[in-house]
Design a protein that fits this description.
FAD/NAD(P)-binding domain, Flavocytochrome C3, Chain A, domain 1, Methane Monooxygenase Hydroxylase, Chain G, domain 1, 3 domains, five-stranded parallel β-sheet, 18 strands, about 35% helix, binds flavin-adenine dinucleotide, binds succinic acid
Length: about 525
């Protein structure tokens, strides 16, 4: 079956939904389809805790937020993009508030601004410790009242449609004349793969945390958009920069890992080792509030030195009434495990949290493929450099949602062009897979390969060993992919393996340790 939209958006997190809302309001006559692979509210966005960074306080300044973003990014950021995002932030946040987002107010009746690692000022707007949920629900409510948006849950994008499909032409990386005409999308209820044609496609499929065994990301974060864009020969960069959040709750065998927000350290919590020492004090003048790459590496070193399984967050000295008020979700989670945060230390370990790399976009969210835009964690926009500053991600998606929409509104000629004839997805010769166990086994192998060999501290030897495992899985998976009737499981395996491969290959090219990339061979 072929479906047509004027604008096709893949993903329903903050990036996909905010872009859809802006476009639907500006172009009410255009049909916008948002296809998303799980329920409409399942995304990384939904689990965001700390909040959104924005210069709001009169004593704060754009220059200070810019300086913090650059320092956290190890100065690998694109300075123009950093300025653009940070200066646009207040307007975008006001817009989000006008759509209904509710941020916490303090007793002076102004927004309660939190603090997180790497920030030199209090500038994080938040809704308790469930800011992402508040944003996700606000955006979904807007989507419901916009008649020109059709939201399709359980619709899994498999591949972008380019000349590779329409002309059977081989495309190449670096080629200028590749064009996107939509995507092949599986309806997960029927397992049918349909053709969705569109003059404009926007990738907003989020991150790739599931490439690792230990991650704060939900199971949808399998790097599908990065892998699809890479297969279509879009430019993908900076995949070596992987952010490990320092404080995921230590619960062996639990995946995804529950996050203990950095805002908890911003509120005054200490990190302690097995001996009860505040080990961050001698490492960085910001101690527990150094940027994430520094804190995660310090924890990794502590664990290697002591052989312990975790370090601890100490909240016992904090104002408990205020703490519970600010972090009810975290307190409740700890309580459910018998941890009373007023009396007990919280066991924590680093976990894969965010990928700085992704599909390269320009200041308007345009990728290297014509008529293909991207927004959110799937991208490499230049904002984050080698390590993202806390709470800059939700912000990035809101600002780029606005930019992408503006660019499309200003270039409506694209809607007048005829699309080429597009073949239906070819299932000829495929059969039901005999054993799903091979797919789940390979998925585990990719994830443990990455967690064991390509984590916070890397080396060429470990990277090459990982490459061997990933190549083996690539060959196995491609064989299966050509033979069997497709399922989300095999597509996701293919995608996490592609992202893992890109992380390893781009790591092997590094000549210097920067932010979320650190190799003992480069010391
Ligand atoms: P997502 O929100 O992940 O949305 C991606 C969407 O694409 C989902 O709907 C998914 O189902 C869909 N999708 C994926 N693949 C496909 C496919 N093949 N076909 C169709 N649909 C697909 N950032 C902050 O700024 N502040 C915070 O406080 C914060 N806290 C965080 C806490 C946690 C636990 C986590 C995991 C992340 C946190 N982050 C935070 C990071 C931030 O939440 C994400 O980077 C951001 O929400 C990404 O938004 P997105 O729209 O790009 O992706
Ligand atoms: C957190 O609350 O610690 C996560 C914030 C972020 O990822 O930006």
């Amino acid at each position: 079956m072929t479906n047509h939209a004027d604008i096709l958006i893949l993903g329903s997190g903050v990036a996909g939904l905010s872009t859809a809302i802006k476009l639907a309001k500006a172009l009410p006559e255009k049909k916008i389809i948002v296809a998303t692979k799980d329920t409409k509210d399942e995304s990384n966005t939904r689990y965001a805790q700390g909040g959104i960074a924005v210069v709001w306080d009169k004593l704060d300044s754009f220059e200070s937020h810019i300086a913090d973003t650059l320092r956290a990014g190890d100065y690998e950021n694109d300075k123009e993009v950093v300025r653009m995002v940070i200066e646009n932030a207040p307007e975008r946040i006001r817009e989000l508030i006008s759509w209904g987002a509710d941020f916490d107010i303090n007793d002076k009746n102004t927004y309660d601004l939190g603090k997180e690692g790497g920030h030199s000022a209090n500038r994080i707007l938040h809704h308790k410790d469930i800011t992402g949920f508040e944003i996700q629900m606000t955006l979904l409510h807007q989507i419901e009242i916009l008649p020109n948006i059709q939201l399709l849950p359980h619709h899994f994008a498999i591949d972008l449609i380019t000349e590779h499909h329409t002309e059977g032409r081989k495309t190449h990386f670096g080629e200028k004349n590749i064009t996107c005409f939509g995507a092949y999308i599986m309806d997960e209820k029927t397992q049918e793969i349909d053709t969705y044609t569109a003059p404009v496609t926007i990738l907003a499929t989020g991150g790739a945390g599931q490439t690792y065994a230990s991650t704060t990301n939900p199971i949808i974060a399998t790097g599908d958009g990065i892998a699809m864009a890479y297969r279509a020969h879009a430019k993908v960069s900076d995949m070596q920069y992987v952010q490990f959040h320092p404080t995921s709750l230590y619960e062996p065998g639990k995946s995804p890992a529950f996050l203990i927000s950095e805002a908890v350290r911003g509120f005054g919590a200490y990190l302690r080792n097995q001996e009860g020492e505040r080990f961050m004090l001698p490492i960085d003048e910001r101690a527990e509030l150094a940027s994430r790459d520094i804190v995660s590496r310090a924890i990794d070193m502590e664990l290697n030195k002591s052989g312990a399984s975790c370090v601890y967050l100490d909240c016992t000295h904090l104002d408990q009434k205020a703490f519970v008020h600010h972090f009810p979700n975290i307190v409740e989670k700890c309580r459910s495990l018998g941890i009373d945060v007023a009396k007990n230390l919280i066991p924590v370990v680093p976990a894969m949290h965010y990928i700085m790399g992704g599909v390269v976009i320009d200041k308007w969210g345009k990728t290297s493929i014509n008529n293909l835009y991207a927004n959110g964690e799937v991208t490499c926009s230049g904002l984050h450099g080698a390590n993202r500053l806390a709470s800059n991600s939700l912000l990035e998606a809101l600002v780029f949602g606005h930019k992408v929409a503006k660019h499309i509104v200003d270039h409506q000629d694209v809607f007048k062009k005829n699309l080429p004839s597009i073949p239906e997805w070819n299932t000829e010769g495929t059969t039901e897979p005999k054993e799903m166990i091979l797919i789940s086994h390979n998925r585990k192998t990719v994830k443990y390969t990455m967690s064991d060999l390509v984590a916070i501290v890397r080396s060429d030897e470990r990277l090459n060993r990982a490459l061997g495992h990933l190549r083996y899985i690539y060959v196995d998976t491609e064989k299966l992919y050509k033979k069997v009737i497709l399922s989300p499981q095999i597509i996701e395996l293919r995608n996490i393996n592609a992202c893992a491969y890109l992380i390893v290959k781009q790591s092997l090219k590094m000549k210097e340790n920067k932010g979320g990339f650190y190799s003992i061979d480069l010391l």
